[in-house]
Amino acid sequence: MYEFYPYFTNDGSVGLYSKSDNDIYHSTYGALTEAYEKFILPSNLIENFKNKSEIRILDICYGIGYNSKSAINFLIENYYIDTIDTNNIKNNKYNDMIYTNNKILKTKENKPHQNKNFNIFIKAIDTDKILALLSPFIICNKKKLPRNYKLPFINEKISKMLNKPPKNIIKFYDEINLIIYEKITEKYPEIFEDSDLDFILNSKKYKQFFDPNILRLFKLKQNERYSALGLRQIYSFLHNIYYRNISNSYKTGLKSLIKHNFIFELKINDARKELESDNEMYDYIFLDAFTPAKCPALWTIDFFKELYKHLSSDGMILTYSNSAAVRNAFLNSGFFVGKIFNPNLNKFTGTIAVKNKTLIKHELSEYDLGLIKTKAGIFYRDENLDSLNEAIINRHKAEVENSNLISSSKFIKNYKKTKENK
Fold first, then answer.
1. Cα–chain-centroid distance for residue 208?
2. What is the CB neighbour count within 10 angstroms for residue 86?
3. Phi first, then psi: what are they for 77, rounded to 5°?
4. H or E element at residue 84
5. Which helix (H) or strand (E) holds 175?
6. pLDDT classification of 62: cutoffs 50, 70, 90
């Protein structure tokens, strides 16, 4: 039976725990917040929308879809709504960033949704089919956790980190799940017959983590009553669930996105193999693979060279990793490399790789570049893009052991000493 370990993070979104790796996929700080701060806000989407009639996004390691959902949420909020109701938004630094940007685009000539040829394309890739199919059911912003909330599995470390909400809570539209649901069920109708998925969705243990409206829609189709209702009744059903309490401007934008402007393509495949047969170019690549130290297959210089072929001239790769080996692999694949700065946490929280150097706002420091030249900067290799993680790790380990480069610990010690003497 498929193992599923969800838990609520501190912004009301759902995170996942990997029992096999004894590690978490999403920060307890806030899974949705993390997606926004590490992928969406640093991506400079607003400038791209001003200059292009189409945005293409590649979401590698889609998982339960936070990066794709956050991109859709951000785009709808900033480009598909004529008027924004900010009464329910807390006045904080995070949302000020979003709404300040939105106000810049109030003039008609800057509104991309008025361009009939404007399109958004997202290609999402993951090897875990069950997890990806669960994505439209996952609650993204549970407003209030149960008073005595307990994890559905035992993990003291996660328990201790909960109930410490982030300073900035994201406003997220539940309707995003409907968009993803429609796209996924159209592509994978077998979702209604999958026993593992059915077991998870019907388990009382996991009920609190799922959107009840999407579950109801799923069961309606699963029980084969969907077709008997007729098209009018179905639209009425959806309207009553999703559109009763939202503004007309939002309805218009959402319908436009679903029917005309938005293409979502989910691929259940190894990203290495998927990209070898992909001829598309992307404006944004969200690289959200599991930690390089445990799953290096999507962090090798050879995979990055493949990503280079798929990134547009003004495109951007964003990842949470600050690894010297990852940054060195990007540099040796032909990219210019910079850092992601999070103003809310006042620290650097990721890496950006681009072909156009002017897109980098925060360049690698002297310290970062020095660390890349140590053993810590030795990157992973996978020339044929088909090696198992264990083989890649063993090869990397041998290369590090046989290297004459200075160790990272010695470099850091020398660097600090040099700084102190200045």
1. 22
2. 13
3. -65, -35
4. none
5. helix 175-187
6. very high
> Which two tokens mark 59?
């979401």
CA distance 270 to 279: 16
**Which candidate, 286, 328, 281, places its Cα nearest to that of 308?**
281
Structural tokens at position 207? 């009920």
Among 51, 26, 50, 49, residue whose Cα is nearest residue 36 = 26
Q: Are strands 23-24 and 262-268 parallel, antiparallel or unpaired?
A: unpaired
Whether the per-residue pLDDT at 338 is higher than 60: the answer is yes
Residue 295's Cβ-count burial label (10 Å; 0-12, 13-18, 19+) is middle
Tell me the average pLDDT across 66-84.
73
β-strand partners of 337: 353
H or E stretch covering 201: helix 195-202
And the tokens for 11?
């912004």
**What tokens does 162 get?**
């909960």
Q: Which residue is listed with tokens 């701060």?
A: 37
* Contact between residue 70 and residue 39 where contact means Cβ atoms under 8 Å apart: yes
Residue 44 φ/ψ region, left for φ over 0, alpha for ψ in the -120 to 50 degree band, beta for the rest: left
Q: Please state, in angstroms and rounded to a whole number, the distance separating the CA atoms of residues 56 and 119.
A: 8
Is residue 291 predicted with pLDDT exceeding 70? yes
